[in-house]
Amino acid sequence: MKRAMLKRMTAITLAGALAFGLGACGGSSNQGSGDASSSGDSGTITLTNVSYDPTRELYQQYNEVFKEHYKEETGNDIEIVQSHGGSGGQARSVVEGAEADVVTLALAHDITLIEQAGLIESGWIDEFDKNSSPYTSTIVFLVRKGNEKGINDWDDLIKDGVEIINPDPKSSGGACWNFLAAWEFASRKFDGDEAQIKDFMTKLYDNVTVMDSGARGATTTFVENGQGDVLIAWENEAIATVNEYPDDYEIISPSVSILAQPSVAIVDENAKKDGTEEAAKDYLEFLYTDEAQQIIGENGYRPSNEEILNSFGDKFDLNMELCTIDDFGGWDAAYDTFFNDGAIFDEIYNP
To answer: Which of 113, 136, 159 lies closest to 305 in space, CA to CA?
Structure first.
């Protein structure tokens, strides 16, 4: 436990140092050009997308296609600034004043925090299709080729000697999905007996040896730094790793996981100030087009368009049994129960 806590603190401290050094939104990396204003002397509109950390490659590709679409539709040029980091940290950075015309975050609760700060209008979740979730994902295990520790399901993660890499639910949206997927497995295994579920979760987090502040950092720890036996990962992160290193890693689909629904929204107050309201709306609406949905699937995310999703049946395990956030009463209830200060995560991780 002490080792996991120390490494968790080290990861967070390093992330904070990087944030200070980069001067970036929420300690994340910014990619793009131009400032965060609606236009410069050239008349080019600049739009800032504050996103969670695994999406950088997706939006790099999407932004190029959207820029062409926008030029054809309006005759104007547009530049997109990308910002990436742990989803919770990104949300807090926007609340604290970081520039964002749109947010594309890991879970609805992070956008709700921005709404509560008065920057996003109520009803945002109904502004775009599928509860403003143009793509979904789920949680899987990434293991080294050969799966030496025999990790096939959640209960294999609590075995002695298994070292887990997993991000921190206090800063990472993906980590919240991870936690809930594990809890659902334990709940079914122990017929809802909370004492046994908590004991299971305590053993699981005792085996977490590095707790990074974001999902991409956790992937780097596992893949680039060679630490741990298993990474609890976004499906898209696992797919990208296996694509890049097919001889070194493999994906394990647990018996139970969760339908992870990243959310998108216009940051209304900023978009009004920047004069980017129409561009921001177009940017998020275009995610639902067939062309964008194809890009989404190619990048390892599950398209919201069922027909296009099914065309990627060789990439995704579409037979996984998935619970949803509704099974936990929605995000407000889930945070009250699990993730707020003093809630169950603190109880099982800091007894």
So the answer is: 136
Look at residue 19 and tell me whether its pLDDT is greater than 80. Answer: no
User: How many other C-beta atoms are found inside a 10 Å radius of the C-beta of residue 269?
Assistant: 15
Within the chain, what is the greatest distance between any pair of CA atoms? 64
Instruction: Tell me, yes or no, whether 147 and 71 share the same domain.
Output: no
- Ramachandran region, residue 136 (left: φ > 0; alpha: ψ -120 to 50; beta: rest): beta
* pLDDT(4) > 90: no
Whether residue 197 is found in the same domain as residue 76: no
Domain count, the chain: 2
- Domain with 71, as residue range(s), is 22-135+263-315
Q: For residue 87, give the CATH number of its domain.
A: 3.40.190.10
Q: Is residue 293 domain-shared with residue 326, that is, in the same domain?
A: no
pTM given for the model: 0.86
Q: How far is CA 17 from the centre of its chain?
A: 22
pLDDT in tens, 166-210: 999 999 999 999 999 999 999 999 999 999 999 999 999 999 999
How far is the first Cα of the chain from the last one, in angstroms, to the nearest whole number?
10
| Backbone torsions φ then ψ of 56, nearest 5 degrees | -60, -40
C-alpha to C-alpha distance for 115 and 219, rounded to whole angstroms: 30
Dist. CA 54–CA 135, nearest whole Å = 13
Q: What are the backbone dihedrals phi and psi of residue 169, each rounded to the nearest 5 degrees, phi first?
A: -60, -20
What are phi and psi for residue 281, nearest 5 degrees?
A: -65, -45
